[in-house]
Amino acid sequence: MDDIFKKYIEEDYKLFSEKLIPGANILGIRSNNLRLIAKEYVNKEDYSLLTKDLIYHEEKMVYMYMLSYIKEINLIYEKLDKIVPLIDNWAVCDASMNIKIINKNRDFFYSLITKYKDSKNEFEARFVLIMLLSHYMDEAYLDVIFELLESVYADKYYTKMAKAWLLCECFIKYRDYTIKKLNNLKIDDFSFNKAIDKMRDSFRVSDEDKAYLKFIKRK
């Protein structure tokens, strides 16, 4: 661990974070401070953290935040590919949502989705779904999204929850397309019903649609 991390450690926040992110090796540093550390590395053009062994959760988070500040897409691709197999919790996985440069270079980054789409690892599979949710939620990719909603391996909680989140967002943003898919969608009951719950909780879904969604919820 670099010295830059030490001044931000809070023991109480460590205890809080360990409950929120089970299984992670946590120091106890708040997200806003992790972003400051990431900016400091990038501003100094110090990319050493991107080549080190990542021991602590916060190191992985700073790594991800650095990728959101760096502008060189080849470097981002290389380092994102490197960290995906090291993801061990939902927070590190979902930090990939901050890498906005992917939105403008979808074709370039799509091979990362292809590479991990058949993985049986919980967080590699979640990474694929979060990439679709945050960077490929576009009419041009709807067929791909629904193909992967069905095919991405989801036997564990955090992958199932990502499927539910992705399906919910599809319904909210592309209601007509999605509603045609729901009755014959080949995903597990847990993910499907969680998605229905999320849709029905959303203020962006009409009361009429909420009644229909309640009707099609799986028993």
Provide a descriptive summary of the structure in words.
- The chain starts with a helix and ends with a helix.
- α4 (57-69) packs antiparallel against α5 (73-83), α8 (122-135) runs parallel beside α10 and α10 (157-173) crosses α12.
- It is mainly alpha-helical and 219 residues long.
- The protein has 13 helices and no strands.
Query: Using DSSP, what is the number of strands?
Result: 0
Strand content bin:
under 5%
**In one word, what is the shape?**
globular
Largest sheet geometry = none
- The helix fraction, in percent, is 55-70%
CATH architectural designation of the largest domain: Alpha Horseshoe
The name of the CATH topology of the largest domain is Leucine-rich Repeat Variant
What's the level 1 CATH class of the largest domain? Answer: Mainly Alpha
Segments where pLDDT lies below 50 for 5+ residues? none
Number of domains: 2
Query: Which structural class do the helices and strands define?
Result: mainly alpha
Q: Secondary-structure element order, as H and E?
A: HHHHHHHHHHHHH
| End-to-end C-alpha gap | 49 Å
| Contiguous helical run count | 13
Global mean pLDDT? 97
Work out the radius of gyration. 19 Å
Set down the secondary structure blueprint.
Layout: H1 3-6, H2 11-20, H3 31-43, H4 57-69, H5 73-83, H6 90-94, H7 106-116, H8 122-135, H9 142-151, H10 157-173, H11 175-181, H12 189-201, H13 207-216
Helix pairs in contact: 3-4, 4-5, 7-8, 8-10, 10-11, 10-12, 12-13
